Amino acid sequence: MDLKEAIKRIANDIAGDIVEIRRHLHSYPELSYKEFKTAKYISKTLREIGLSPVEGIAETGVSAIIEGKNPSKRIIALRADIDALPIVETNDVSYKSKNKGVMHACGHDVHTSSLLGTARILTQLKDHFEGSVKLIFQPGEEKAPGGASLMIKEGILENPRPDNIIGQHVMPLMPTGKIGFKEGLYMASADELYITVKGRGGHAAMPDRNIDPVLIASHILVALQQVVSRYATPTTPTVLSFGKVIAEGATNIIPDEVKIEGTFRTLNEKWRAEAKGKMKKLAEGIAESMGGACDFHILDGYPFLYNNEQLTRRNRQFAINYVGEENVIDLDIWMAAEDFSYYSQEIDACFYRLGVRNEAKGITSNVHTPTFDVDEDALEIGAGLMAWMAINELQTEH
Fold first, then answer.
1. What is the C-alpha separation between 299 and 192, in angstroms, rounded?
2. Is 376 helix (H, G, I), strand (E, B) or coil?
């Protein structure tokens, strides 16, 4: 049997079903760690194709095993995330979110429906490959501490332990049909910064009687950028951004405190720890020198994502064999974060990108926006390619 042609035929036959699943998930999105109906839907779909899902991992996670011949010979894992974002969708489509204020704006509906399609393909072909495939449908990718870390703690990488793990993510910057790979360091760590600058409020016309936290906060915001520009080595990608500053005074009122929230991202764990210490010390010192105080709280987020070179190189070649060399793209470092990184710290991992952009259809919005959508032609490619990668990886001798 020509397995590649068999996979493409099955993927084409079930493409409409995968789109239907994606639209259902898109219509009924659920926030991180609250994906109860989504998990039930996934489990129901897996049972319909003859699998026995395990539910309730990290509360809303689901897993299942597809066993080929000689099922313990080699085991790989395939992962999809299932949660949505707190965004009000503005797309005018039949499958628009029916859950007010919640939207699949990062393509997790695509990842889930695509992996369900992959499961269907592999189940039909299980007599034609050796080893087993562990399917992981993971909650909470969008919210710390990250559903991946919770599933790992609950044993998702054990019993059986996979040799490696593969994950797929939509990329709205790439046209449909294109697949992207990056060996080695790929995505950044991400820590959340919560700063409260404390002063003494009062009438704005009498600043000498107050300790102005707005002014102190302004100095802190500017000074913290020096941690990036003057302490980080130029060869270490580093991002420090603040997206929320709240000073609830008025034109004539100096408030008692200012709250600031931001993110710190990098690709070096030693520098990550060092920089957080420098930021805290700098902010507290500035506040004290100006007569105020500063509470600097850091919520440690996801580590950097590392794509195992050999695994990624193999899967890049599998993709070339499936979609053609002209459709496989080499990616650069990406400073966004992904909790798939937790898997990459535990076992060999490959996290690649699926193009979903179609300018002719007007599908050009980026992730995390209220107009985000995908070219659904990508679903057939995503499901088939992941099945092709899984079967080839199972056949790889080490």
1. 5
2. coil
Strands 164-175 and 305-307, bridge-based pairing: unpaired
What gap in Å lies between CA 318 and CA 316, rounded to an integer? 5
Task: Take residue 106 and report the two structure tokens written for it.
Answer: 């990062």
- The catalytic residue among 41, 302, 322, 352 is 302
Q: In this structure, what CATH number is given to the domain that contains residue 19?
A: 3.40.630.10
Asked which of 299, 324, 347 is the last residue of a domain, the reply is: 299
For the segment 80-96, what is each residue's pLDDT rounded down to a tens digit? Answer: 999 999 999 999 999 99
Q: Please tell me the distance from the alpha carbon of residue 290 to that of residue 214, in angstroms, as a whole number.
A: 11
Annotated active-site residue 306? The verdict is no
Q: Which residues pair with 192 in a beta bridge?
A: 263, 299
pLDDT tens, position by position, 160-182: 999 999 999 999 999 999 999 99
The sign of the torsion formed by the CA atoms of 341, 343, 348, 351 equals negative
Six-digit token string for 287: 């506040």
Q: What's the structural domain count of the chain?
A: 2
For a pLDDT cut of 90, what percent of the chain falls above it? 98
Domain boundary among 299, 317, 333: 299
Report the DSSP beta bridge partners of residue 238. Answer: 266
CA distance 276 to 297: 10
Residue 183 is among the residues annotated as catalytic for this protein: no
CA-to-CA distance for 313 and 334, rounded, in angstroms? 18
Question: How far apart are the C-alpha atoms of 322 and 123, rounded to whole Å?
Answer: 19
Query: Of 35, 89, 257, 376, which is the active-site residue?
Result: 376
Nearest to 67 by CA among 116, 126, 119: 126
CATH number at residue 208: 3.30.70.360
Distance in angstroms (rounded) separating the CA atoms of residues 141 and 32: 7
pTM of the model: 0.94
Token pair listed for 367: 């992730």
Phi-psi region of 324 (alpha: psi -120 to 50; beta: other; left: phi over 0): left
Q: Which two tokens stand for residue 383?
A: 């499901």
Residues contacting 345, CB < 8 A, separation 6+: 303, 306
